[in-house]
Fold this sequence. Notes:
Elements: E1 3-5, E2 23-28, E3 34-42, E4 47-51, E5 61-66, H1 75-84, H2 86-93, E6 103-107, E7 115-120, H3 131-148, E8 153-156, H4 168-185, E9 191-196, H5 199-212
Helix pairs in contact: 3-4, 4-5
Amino acid sequence: MGLISVHRGRSLSPQSEPLGVSRRGRVAHDSCVAHDVRMARYASGRVETLLGDITRLAVDAVVNAANSSLLGGGGVDGAIHRAAGPGLLAECRLLGGCEAGDAKLTRGHRLPARFVVHTVGPVWRGGGEGEDATLARCYRRSLEVAAGVGARSVAFPSISTGAYGFPMERAAAIALREVKDGLSRYPELERVTLCCFSPADLATYDRLAASLFAPG
Ligand code: AR6
């Protein structure tokens, strides 16, 4: 039960954590506000699942689950805009929106993260309108955009599983598959964090990750 310090530009916790071990800890952020977190590591530490607020993570790039206007909204999008401040919206206005499945980059402004990758997930319409493929493209394009600016640590929320209604387990399976694929495509990527916002979501990610990344 150690104290895990998060500081700008540093990794979330020691690299030496054993594979797939869950534990509880406390994260002290730059703001000096501490809160409980749970995390687990997979794939030799290159994949991390976490319960927490993505706006607090001191990673190179956080991914935003935005809408096609890129001009803010509710959920994680609203939280990212609130935490980043008005400079983020000003920069987003220059981007000309974003199609579902694509991703665009801004700076992190007042976030601890250096960059924000804004992606637009599919609205769930029952699964027959290419939602799986669009969601997979969100993860693929986000990793591509992040790798393009040299990001070594990237954190994702569970794209489309809030307001857009994508079933959580189905979305988590797609997210983990694409992250696994991205790790081999981008060897310089040191850590991908899957940031969950509820214990139930975290349990789903952990169950799927434990089977996908099980040591051979
Ligand atoms: N940190 C991490 N995850 C979060 C946070 C947070 N601070 N806040 C919410 N989540 P949603 P979507 C989780 O609705 O489904 C917006 O209005 C949340 O529990 O944010 O892709 C946009 O502008 C859920 O698991 O995004 C779009 O209009 C996940 O983030 C629309 O919602 C995604 O939920 C996008 O809908």
